[in-house]
Amino acid sequence: MMTSKERLLITIENKKPDYVPCCFMIFTALAKKCKHQFEFIERQLKLGLDVKVELPELPFRFHPEVEIKEWKEINEKENSIFLHKEYITPKGILNTVVRKTSDWPYGDSIPIFNDYLTVRSKKFLIEKEQDLESLRFLFAEPTNEDIVNFREKSNQLKKFASKKGLLISGGWRSGTPEKCAPEKGINRDGGMMGADALLWLCGVENAIFLAMDKPEMIGEILKIISEWNIKRMQIYLEEGIDLLIKRAWYEGIEFWSPIFYRKYIFPILKKEIEIVHQAGTKFGYIITSGGMPLLDDFLELGIDVLIGIDPKMGNWDFKKLKEKLTGKICLWGGVNGPLTIERGAKKEVMKEVSYAILEIGREGGFILSPVDNVTNETENTWENINTLIKVWGKTRGIYAK
Question: How confident is the model at residue 180 (pLDDT cuts 50, 70, 90)?
Answer without folding.
Answer: low
